[in-house]
Each structure stands twice: as structure tokens, then as C-alpha cells.
Amino acid sequence: MYTYKFTYQKLLFAFTCIVFCMSVLPACEKYLEAKPDQSVSIPSTLGDMQALMDNASLLNTGFPSAAEMSSDNFYLADNAWMGLTDITAKNLYTWDAQTTNRGDWSSPYRVVSYANIVLDNMDKIALTTQNNAAYKRVLGTALFFRSFSFFQLAQYFAPVWDSSKAAVLLGIPLRLHAEITNVSQRASLQVSFRQIVHDMEEAVKYLPVNTEFKTQPTKAAGWAHIARVYLYMRYYEQAGRAADSSLALFNKLLDYNQADTIGSIPFKLMNDEVIFHARISGGSSLSNSATIVDSSLYASYETADLRKKLFFASRTGGGYSFKGSYLGELTPLAFIGFTAAEMLLVKAEVAARLGKTDDALKALNALLEKRYRKSQFVPVAIQDAELLLGRILAERRKELIFRGQRWADLKRLNLDPRFAMVLKRNIAGTLYQLQPNDLRYNFLIPDDVIKMTGMLQNPR
Amino acid sequence: MRQIFLLQILAVLMLPMLAMAGTGNFELRGRVMNSATNEPLAGASIQLIGSATTTHTDATGYFTLQSPDAKARIQVSYVGFESLQLSIQAGELLEVRLAVKSNELQDVVVRTGYQQLPKERSNGAFEVIDSNLLNRVPAFDIMSKLDGQAGSILANKSGSGTRYTIRGISSMTATMQQPLIVLDNFPYEGNINQINPNDVEQVTVLKDAAAASIWGARAGNGVIVITTKKGRRNSKPAWKFSYNTSMAAKPDLYYLSKMSSSDFIEVEKMLFGKGFYTTAINNTSNRPVLSPVVEWLQLQKLGQLTEAQVQEKINGVKDNDVRSDFLEYLYQPSMLQQLHLQLSGGDQRIQYALSGGYDRQKQNTVGDYFERVSFRSDNNYAPTKWLDLDAGIIFTHMNTVQNSPGNYFNMLPGGGKSVLYPYAALADENGNPAVVLKDYRAGYTDTAGGGLLLDWKYRPLDELQFRDNRLTNDHILGKIGAHIKLLQGLDAELRYQVEKGFGKNEFYYSPETYMVRNMVNRFSQINNRIVKYNLPNGGILDEAYNNQFTQGGRALLNYQLKQDQHQLAAIAGAEIRQSANEASNYRSYGYKPDPLSFVNTDYVTSFPIYGNLSGASPIPNTASQGSTLQRFVSMFANANYTYKDRYSISGSFRKDGSNLFGVNSNQKIVPLWSAGAGWVVSNEGFYKLPWLNYVKLRSTYGVSGNTNSSVTAYSTIRYSSAGGNLVNIPYADVLSPANPDLQWEQVAMFNAAVDFAAFDRRLSGSLEYYQKWADHLLTSAPLDPTTGFTTASFNSGKMEAKGVECYINMAWFRKKFQWSSHLLFNYASSKITNYDIAVSTASNYVGKESAINALEGSAPYGIYAYRWAGLSATNGDPKGYYDGKESTVYTDILSKTPLNQLAYYGSARPPFFGAFSNELSYKAWRLSANISYQAGHYFRLSSIHYNSLYNSWATHGDFAKRWQQPGDEQITHVPSMPYPANSNRDDFYAGSTVLIEKADHIRWQDLRLDYRFSCGHKKQMQLQVYGYVNNVLLIWSATKSGVDPAYGNNMPPQRNYSIGFTAGF
User: Fold this and answer.
1) What single-letter DSSP state applies at residue A339?
2) Which of its termini does chain A have fewer beta carbons within 10 Å around, N or C?
3) Helix (H) or strand (E) holding A199
4) Distance from CA of A57 to the nearest CA of B (A)
5) Contact A53, A145 (CB under 8 A)
6) What is the helix (H) or strand (E) element at residue B1025, kind and residue range?
7) pLDDT tens-digit map of B463-511
8) Which residues contact A387 (CB under 8 A, 6 or more apart)?
């Protein structure tokens, strides 16, 4: 049996133990502050904010596709429609009153949340002379993306702008902060659009004139967006001024005479005409092999119009497929960014509506010059305001095919009896119709959102 | 006399390492064995009565004692056994058989990783699996050995990979339900497969809060403490060699219910007629896969084949079943071989254990196997009487080879197909590798490139030889410890452990592999018949490295006091741990192993893809790097006081801190505690029940925690390199939304138990009742997508669980013929009591029982189903109910059925489970068998899903039983085949009550036969030979569907046969 007695070695041991404990415990605070994952951080620096805003795969590519699937740019053969596995896509094609595309709601709001995380954190970063440019750029970019996304949502989930009823009509939920605990509520149409315009007007103050990549917004992109929003709201003067501001900063056009008419993909991703790149995603009915370009629309392109060759390819199963995407790939999934061409069309339409025929013709011809075969181009010289507007809208239809603008154009033009039209689909003998100003022009808010928040659904 | 002398000489010659324990002229020899098992008892002490001479038995049970007299009396004693006094005579080998001390409860030692306690003195709920039980099942890894042997561990095999839970579910996050694994003293961070199970001495399962709370914030799901083998003091070197081999037949692919090829072809013909394939046939961009029949039908339509020719071609394949080719060419019987050699021993100051093992497991897929080489050394040295030093090292090398080109489940042709078409062939009539459809239409790859591109065909059987994919993993664990006796009753202990793991995955795809040829072709462009290779034309090497480095230190004070009627044992200490992980991935294009070279690659430029199969894209760059660090700091204390060997109280306390990201520092320190009391009723003076030998009542209550490092209170972002972005610039993703209310999960547990032994201790066992309250459970709940997030983690959940565990051991015969039975009965039921997240649509619950399926008042993993109203008599549509009426409006049923109108069956996990095992032994023979059962739960059968059939070739044998004409609804519940398919209709049927079956079953799990004998000179060698069969058979099952409910829609494992032997000398 060992009898216990005191020795110096033991004292040393005990001392070691005590030193160990003492050194462990007070060091806890610092020791426990180490970052658990080196690639993870709490967003706090301007660099973090810029990195979030540079997430182009997320911010620039996930915009709603339901409107494109429901619009009249294309039709599907009966068997292609029946073979669609995605029931939502199938139903959107026939404007089913109860169908909605869940991703169309969540993706733009995801972009809004990124913008909000950045905007919430901007207060914590001091503005100094050194970081002035970077700071403003991040601030402008976040406001830009929030406004861009809100407008996407407003076009599809809220009724078309009507100044007389805007205060009573429901718009979209305006989430302006990153926290997730507040219950989402729909703002009025008026407040929604006020926010969209306000965010973008703030953004253009801060956005830089040039950026390295076309996924990063510039001042010209900000103005282009304002032009688009005001045109949708039918505030033509404001739209015209914004389009001018955009064109003053960026007016490059692709000359289709120089484009490659033989290759199967004529345009490159983020080509010189693009002010800002964004696209829709999802849209399973929008496959290059299944979609057939509306035949009367195809017929409306003149032979001298280079777009006829550059935009369309004849299909094996008959009809034409679309190949003129500014996404640089064979897809009818829409590029929905801005181009100088769109700005010229806004400028022309606005001028025509305001009776400035010369300005309208100048803008229109500036675009068509680059679209028609040089040898066969005859400048448009229509003097009748009504006829000219019709021509400009026809050119808008042809230029912006598969560009995500059709649904919004239908919504606003249907308010004008001169341009209102009925959409029709015919599947295996069944005729589906969508009347002008039909409530189905406003998509349903996804069921789970309604259930979780109790917000009001769009009427049917 | 002379004989004895000779013997003595011989003994000295034979056993040079024999420790001379005494001085005398006569050598007394004998052997000590366990009377119950006939196993030698190593380290038993032998005392020469009337003198101070003592010795111990060696590892094979032998002892030698020097005595002044030729005849003497000795006392033989061994912990846990009845001591024996008997006479011994020099010159003969005395066989001593010690009987297990009847009070066996007293001697079971539980190891918590912090201390060792006699089970009797602890009030907590422990389950000890001793080496006897562990050795029963030959297996590659320790968890497989515990499966079925440890009553408290439930293995769920219905999903992918086996998941283990202790005492039911107490977390709503699947990754947080696993118990903590502790190896000797510290949590084990390596891969569990790296522990050689032959090195394991004992496993202790810590079940209740009192047992587990010493492990604090990671103990909420229970703890499994694995203790490795150690040497013994004062024992001669003992060798132990073991070998075993196990085999199982190729998997039974025909167990899976599939459509016949001719049925499948009929469906394809029908679809072709309806124009279903027109879009794909006309697709000239990405050229999606089309099955041969569809290609032939198209050729017939184009007039290139006649109807007769097509029919002939179809006749040629319609009897094929691709499963037979898979079984013939790509599956093999699996085989496990294990070798293990161990040396242990010690003298008065030293104890040592050395071992080496080699294991090789041939998988059931051709080309796949893995090997493990392990070495271990565990030593203990006492330089002085008050100091004990120990040091150990475990080295493991694992080598995994994965050259199988794929199996029936994962050899996918691309284009969203979930399986190959059923009439595919892997080899032609002559057994040569056949072309199998992959990624594109056959017609396209026939002619693409006009002969200028690389061969674009996929021949899986060829791939076997072109790939060289290996994963190696080295793991070293080193530990040192010092134990010092400070003062009377007070000891100090210092420990440090370091774990270093290094893994390297090397996947080499030679230029001949399909993967390389396909990539090269896609990135090729042909201009004027000149091929431009944008992707280097050569092999591809993928490398992945991971590096793990864990360090832990602990200082502990241990106080023991025994005075009169009082007994106190207490520990207190502090601990610090850090676990760092680094991982990196690289890919080299144009790689050549000899001479070693690779080509620099342009990852930035977007190259066009050949034939516009997809949009232009840069060459994929898989390079990535990551690094994580976890830190824990803990303080703990634990005390146990016993009075008069009857009353005991115990308590524990622990504080944990961790650097888990974003958690406020005040939340970082979580106090966790437990308290318990015990009363040995049978030790009371008034106790007078002669037949009930032992009764102890004990009860505990305590709180432990559960953490998840991936959840944070702040918005966190993750940086990614430019490779994953649309433009060439690094970017960040938001990982989680801000939620400042986040905190840790807490699990409180109450445990009450009675331990008993009766009828001369023939009957013994325990009965435990527990209740659990899990609070602040993290739930990844659906979030209003307007917030920008579709799910987020909240501490919104509460769960309650209660259960009963009953262990009964019965020794029917204990003499020469022995028969004992063990019955294990478990009842565990959990209920979700609070769940703040709004209830969503019915389709989010139906068919989702593989997830937690949280709904207040229901069990986790609840099975919900749509009510079934039979098939329509007119068209065979499945009918359900909506709004109280029969309905075939499937969108309404799926999205608008209120949850209370769904049929609810309870949990998919069994509330009742257990085992009944028997062991018979007679002389050298021993026979044991284990029967397990699960009851009270349900499972869902799979059936035909027409939308998946049309689009992804997913077939099911129920197709043959489908409704085809009015009247069929009387004999079948399989809906008619519709066109076009309606996935909501399919989902309704798949989720309906008609496919729910009872999952109760009884399984004869295993059978083992042992034969032990001694041989060699002086019977020095102990041999044990055994045979073992696992997965014997499913004895009874409540379902008549032929599906094994324990494996759901997975294939049950094949019966596994093992033989092996152990030699000790």
C-alpha cells in the first residue's frame, strides 16, 4: 500500500496543473473569438458588400419567367405542350387562373435581401475620402438592385399603374431591411412605385459611369431603368428625359450589318450594345427546341431586316426558332437587361406620343439604320403621329422579342383601345383566350406566402 | 524429483521472460479459467497461503509459483469472481475454474471518458458492451459490431447510410441526432472506420443526462465511449492472433420491383405514337438521349426501316433485363478479411499493449475495395510509486479504390433519366463491352465531327481499366497522460491528445475514359476539317486533400474518500480543445502520369461548345479551398457520495464555451448539470426477501446540450472564387439570414430505474423509465420567401419523449451445460409539442417521412397520407377526398387538403424494438443466436409513377397490375396509364393510404457457433474457431408485400457468412 507524503516533485506537478487551468480559463474570451470557417464572415467591410453585389450568378440571373411563358412571342406544338412535365409551365401557357410560379416571387426578393443586407450595413461603415468612390458605388449598386427587383415584381404581381386608383390598389410588399421577423404586407401601388422610383433616383446619384463588367450597374443603367419604369407608368415626359440621360452616357449600338449571319449564335453574351446584363431563369416551356416563334410576328420582319436572319432559324419540325438571344446561347429565355436600342425606342415612342415627330423619326432611324441591310435601308419618314406611333410600337415589338418586355407592354397598351389585343392559344382543338386587362395579367402570389403572412391575394 | 527438476529447466528454457516471483525449490503450475466460458483469466492473483508469495496469471491464464514445499494450498482470486482456496501439487498442472461472483452488477465498470466507476455506485443509465459481446460479430467497423448487441442503440437503415440514435430523437436536425463518439478520453474527430474494432476492449453507452452531462454541450444525444485494450500489470507477454473472413453474395437486384422490358417498350411505342418524343427528336441543340426503340420508331417514320425490321430489332431486346448484365459484369460477392495480432503484458512498473491489424474489404461492385492497416501501442509506466505515466499512439492507413464505372443505381444516361432503360445491355453476345447510351442521342454521337472528333461512345465495361481512383487516408492519434497521487485520496491527472489526419483523393481519368473524351469533344471546334482543342487533349487528374488537426488538453483532480460508512468520489477539472480542418481541391488537364506532366489551362475565356450542345462556357475549374476551426473550452465537476453502501447521491456540473460563429458570448457559456440519487434496498436491515437477492432504485435528472456549428445569429456570407461566377470576379453568398434570437438546443432528461437480481441471481436485469424534454430545438423551417430566404433556422421546436428500457438476463442452467437468455425490450416515443412555424400545404407533409415532418402533437418522422377512395370505374383514375367528397382534382387534394383530414399513422421509426438472444454452451462448444424485432410503425410502398416513367424511365412492377378496363378497380389499386402524364395524379397515388403498410417485423439476425480448445506443448495455446451468419432471415413481417420494412425501398443486405479463429499463447 502506498502511503501518501509530500514531495517537491508533486508540488511541481500540482503547480503545473494550476498553471494549466489558470492559463485556459481567462484566455477563453479571445480563444473563442476565432473564426470557425475561414471562408465565412459577418458582412462588415466595404469589400464584403462589394463581393455580395458581385454575385452575378444570383443577382443578375434569376428574374421571373412566368410572363415570358405566358406571352405571345411563341407557341408550342400540341405534343410539346402535352409532353411538358412541369405542370406550372403547362398551365401558364394557357393562362390558368390558379397557377403561379413560386420562384418568380422568391428569386427577386432574394436579390432584395442581398441589397438590404448591404444597405443595413452601410451605416456601420464610415465614409472617408479614401473609400468615397467605393462606398458610393456599393450604395448605388444596392439601391439599383432593390429597385430593379421591386419593379420586376410590380410588373407581374401588381396591377398596371393607374394614377387615379394607385392609392387603393395593392402593390407589392416593400421589404427595406434584412431582418426576417417582420411580417410582409403589401404596400399600395402608389407607395410601391414611389419606392421603386425613389430607390433608382438615389442610385443614379451614386452609381459610377463605368464598371468593369456589364453585370455591375452604371449610371446609364440606372437612367435606363427609370425610363422603363416611367414608360410603364405612362409618364412619357419623365421617361423621355431618363432615356436621354441614359443615351448621353451610353449610346453604342451593334451594327447588324457586321454581325455573323451564318453562325448559329450571332450575338455574344454582354455584347457592346448591352448597358446592363440581367436575365430570367426557370421557364421550362421556353426551350429552344419546343418554342416556335409566332408566325405573324416572324412575317412582320421585312426581307431587308437583318434581324429576320439573325434572330430566327428554321426548325426541323417546321416554323422558326429564336436564336438572337443576347445571352450568347440558343435559348428563348429572355435577356432582360438594358440596351441602347431599347432607350432609342423609348425616346422615339415618347417623342411620337408628345407630337415631336422629328425627334421620334430621328431616334427610330438611328436604330433601324443598324438593323436593316445597309444597301436596302430607307429611313422611315411617316409624318402622321398616329401612324408613326403604330410603327414605333411595331418596331419595339420586333426589337424586343424575347426580352422580357412583352407582358408589361401588353398590360400598358391594353389600356389604350387602339392597341388592345386578345391573346389566343389553340391546343388540340381547345381555344384559350386572354382578354385585354384580364385579371390574369396579374399573377397570383404564391399560396405559402399568403398563408404565412395573411397578405391579400390578387383577385380572380 | 528428477522429473520436477527437468520440468523446471524446461520451464526456464521455454519461458525466458517468466518473472520469478519467489524463491523456492518447487514449482507449482496451474491455469485459471472462467468456469462459465472456459476462457483463461489473465491477471488473476495467486497467493501461497501462509506466505507472502504471490503471482499473477499470464494472458493465457497460466501461472507458476515457487514453493518450498511440493504440496501447498493457494488462494486464487480475480476481480468479479468468487475466490477459491485449493491444494496444489508440484509436477501437475492444476486447472482452476473460477465462478463469476454472483453479484455481477457490482463488478461491471463503466467508463465515461473521465473516470471509471463501478456500475453499482452510479445512479446514471449506462449500458456496457463487453469484449465478449463485441467479439461476437465480425465486422469492419465498431458501429456495425454494436448494431444489435447494444440494446439502447437503434440503427435506422431505411435511408442512405445507417444512422444511429440513442433513446429516440431529441433534435429536429438530422445531422444533430447522432451520439458523440469518445475514444478513451477524448471525442474522436476522425472517421469511425479508422478505429480497428479488434483493438476495442469495451464500449460504454451513456444514456441519461446524469451519465452524459459530463460531456456537456455535445451530449444531448447520448455518448458512446470506446475503450481500447490495455496491458495488465504483472503478466507475462501474451500473444493473440485472430483471423476471420466474411462473404456475402451479389446483391439481389431482382428484389426491386421493375417493369418488364416488353412492357416498357409498349409504353415507348404508345408515347411515340402520341408524339411525346417529337420535341426531343427535333432538338438539334443539346441532343437529349433517346432510347433505341424510339430511335428505331423514328427511322421507321422516316422510311429508313420497315415495320418488320423494327419489330425484329425489338424482338431482339425485349427479353433483356439490364439487371442480369449488371450482376454478371459489375457486381461481385463482397468479401471481408481481417487479420489482427496483439501482444500485451507488463511487470510491476510497466504495462504494454501492441497490436497490428490488416483488413481488406472487397465491395460488391467490381473495381471497388478498401484496405486498412492499423498499428497501436499503448503503454503505461510508473517511475515512482506516486506517478503513473501513459503514452499511446494509433496509426491507421486506409486505402480505398473506386474504379467501378457504376452500379445499377448510379449509371445514369443523363438527360434527367433516373436509371438506364430496362433492355439495355452492358456487353454484346460475345461478352465484349457494349456501347451504353450516355448524355446524347446515339445517332448524334455516331456521326458528330465527321470522324475528326474523339470516339464519343460510352462503354462502361471498358471504363474499369481506364480509371485509377484512389482515396488514401492516414490518421495518427498520439496521447500522453500523467496520473499523480498528491495527497491521501487526492489524485491529479493531466492529459494531452493530438489527432492528425491526412486524406488524399486522387482520381485519374486517362484519355481513354468517357469523361475525358466527352469533355475534350465538347470543347473542340472544327474549322476546315482542322480540330481545335480548347481543352487539352490528355488525361484529367482530380485531387482533393484534407488535413485535420485536433488537440485536446485536460487537467483533472480526483478525490476519493472512504471512511466508515461514508464513501465519496469527486472529480473537477478543465479542458481545452481545438479542431482544425483544411481542404483543397485541384484539377489538372492534359495530365500524363509518365513522364509526369500537365498542361496550363485557360479558365477565363468562354469557349463555344461543340455543335452548340450548350451555351459557351469556360473550362470548368474545380479548384477550391476551405478551412474551419472549432474551439471548445470546458470546466466540469462531478461528485458521488454513498452512505452505508445503501444511499447514494450524485451530481455533475459543466460549462462549455465554443467559438461557434456569431453566438453572443453570453450564450457561449452554457451551464449544464445533473443530479441523481440511488438506494440499494436489499442492503437494508429490514429487507427480508430471500428470493430477490438484489434491488436498487435510482433516479436522475439533468440537462445537456446540443450544438450545430452551421447556424448563426447574424447574417453570414461565404466567399467563393471567380470560377463559380457569371463574370470573372470573386463573389460572396449570404449563407443565413440574421436572427439574433438563436440559441443552443437543450435536452433535459428524467430517468428512474430499478436494478434487480433474483432466484440465486439466475434472473437479473433492469427496468428503466425515462422522459426527455428537448427545448429550443433548431428547425430549418420554411420562411416567407418575401424575406429573401425560403428556409431559416429557428429555435422554435420543443419535443417530448418517453420510453422504457427493459433488460432481462436469465441463466437457465449454469453447470456443465449452460443456457442463458437475454431479452431486450425498448419503447421510445417522441412527440413534437411546439413548433412555431406556420403549417404549410398537405403535399409538404405527405411522403416526407424521411425528414422530421414537424407538426405539433405528432411524432417526428410522421407518416401522412391522402385518403383513398379507390379507382374510378370509368377510367382508372385514382380517387381521393376533398372537402368531404370524392375528388379527382389532384391540385386541390395536394395543396388544399387541411392537415387534419390527412390520414396520420404515427412515426416511421419503430416505437417498440429490441432483441431476444440465447446462448448455449456445453464443454468446448458454444452456440448463440440473436433475434431482433421492431413494431408499431409503418412504411410506404413505392409504386408506378407515370410521369417519372415517361420522362425518366423510372419503372415499377406494379405497372403490370394497373387498371386497364372497367372492373379492374375491384382487383387492383394501381391507376390506369394516362396520357399526358399528370404528376399531381401520380403524387396523389404515391402519397395515398393504399400504399401504407405496417412495418412490424421479426428478424433472425445472426447465429454463431464457437469451439474452443487448447493445444500445443502443455496446452499453452488457446484456440477458438467459429462460424457466424448475419442477416439470417426475416422470420415474420406484418406486410405481405414482400418488401423488407427495415430497408424501405433499399435492398436489404445479403446473408453474410463468416468463419474465423483466434489463437492465444
Assistant:
1) E
2) N
3) helix A189-206
4) 5
5) yes
6) strand B1021-1037
7) 988 888 999 999 999 999 999 888 888 888 999 999 999 999 999 999 9
8) none
A297 touches A401 (CB < 8 A): yes
| Cell matching residue A164 | 387615379
Classify strands B223-228 and B180-183 as parallel, antiparallel or unpaired.
parallel
pLDDT, position A1: 45
Closest CA to B104 of B83, B84, B126, B80: B80
Contact, B55 vs B45, CB < 8 A?
A: yes
Contact between B862 and B845 (Cβ < 8 Å): yes
Q: How far apart are CA A193 and CA A199, in angstroms?
A: 10
Grid cell for residue B488:
491521501
Q: What is the pLDDT of residues B909-947, one digit of tens each?
A: 999 999 999 999 998 899 999 999 999 999 999 999 999
> For residues B1019 and B987, is the Cβ–Cβ distance under 8 A?
no
**A12 vs B: CB within 8 A:** no
Chain A (310-329) residues lying within 8 Å, Cβ to Cβ, of chain B: 315-317, 327-329
Would you call A152 helix, strand, or coil by DSSP?
Answer: helix
Q: Return d(Cα A253, Cα A369) in angstroms, integer.
A: 10
What span, in angstroms and rounded, lies between the C-alpha atoms of B576 and A21?
Answer: 9
> What are the CB-based long-range contacts (under 8 Å, 24+) for B324-327?
B325/B424, B325/B425, B325/B426, B325/B427, B326/B253, B326/B407, B326/B408, B326/B426, B327/B250, B327/B253
Q: What are phi and psi of A157, to 5 degrees?
A: -110, 0
Q: How far is B170 from chain A (nearest CA, A)?
A: 25
Residue recorded with cell 494531452: B496
- Candidates B25, B24, B169, B337; CA nearest to B1059 is B337
How many residues appear in chain B?
1065
Q: Kindly report the number of other CB atoms within 10 A of residue B515's CB atom.
A: 17
Q: Residues 6 or more apart from B105 whose CB is under 8 A from it? A: B119, B120, B694, B696, B755, B757, B764
* Inter-chain touch B984–A54, beta carbons under 8 Å: no
- A383 vs A130: CA distance, rounded Å: 55
Please report how many Cα atoms fall inside a 13 Å half-sphere around the Cα of residue B332, on the Cβ side.
Answer: 14
Dist. CA A162–CA A165, nearest whole Å: 6
* Across A100-128, average pLDDT: 92
How far apart are the C-alpha atoms of B476 and B396, rounded to whole Å?
6
> Over the Cα atoms of chain B, what is R_g?
33
For residues A434 and A423, give the distance between their C-alpha atoms in angstroms, rounded to a whole number: 5
DSSP-derived 3-state class of residue B86: strand
**B319: exposed, middle or buried (C-beta count within 10 Å: 0-12, 13-18, 19+)?**
exposed
Amino acid at B464: L
What is the structure's pLDDT at A28?
Answer: 57
- As a whole number, mean pLDDT of residues A112-131 equals 91
User: In 3D, which of B441, B428, B432 has the Cα closest to residue B292?
Assistant: B441
Closest CA to B805 of B861, B749, B858: B749
Record: contact A449-B285, CB cut-off 8 A: no
Which residues of chain B fall short of a pLDDT of 50?
1-23, 103-106, 661-662, 665-666
- Output the CA–CA distances (angstroms, integers) from residue B354 to A99, B349, B1015, in the order listed: 70, 17, 24
- Tell me if B30 sits within 8 A of B45, measured CB to CB: no
- The C-alpha angle B472, B475, B476, rounded to 5 degrees, equals 150
By the CB < 8 Å criterion, does A124 face chain B? no
Tell me how far CA of residue A169 lies from CA of A163, A256, B58, B970, in angstroms.
10, 43, 92, 54
CA B127 distance to own-chain centroid:
19
Interface test mutation site (partner A, options B708, B720, B784, max chain A beta carbons within 10 A): B784
